[in-house]
Amino acid sequence: QVQLVESGGGLVQPGGSLKLSCVASGFILSTTGMYWVRQSPEKGLEWVSSITHSGGGSYYSDDVRGRFTISRDDAKNTVYLEMNNLKSEDTATYYCVKSFRIRAVGQNDLRGQGTQVIVSS
Fold first, then answer.
1. Which of 5, 34, 89, 109 has the most CB atoms lying inside 10 A of its own CB?
2. What local confidence, expressed as pLDDT, does residue 12 receive?
3. How many CB atoms lie within 10 A of CB 61?
4. Whether 24 contacts 3, CB under 8 Å
């Protein structure tokens, strides 16, 4: 069964940090690029960051570039999203997605159940 399970979300103050994890199962992670999206009532579903299957390329939305870092550890079947200097506008549910897209979201791409991030003082 192909599955993605995110974790690591929570409540954090503005300026704080969180590291999200996405554990993949049921497929060979190293064969596919991955990306993160987030969803909030204010902005809807938006693409955040992507990483190539080799890990040699990473891409970020303008909103998060310089603050977020995407990475992967294929030996652990895990993709990460390290988030620093968090802002209130980063509040959303974050999903990892099995596919490779840049500045786009595939409605039929496999996503996990999501992990909620709340940035508030």
1. 34
2. 98
3. 17
4. yes
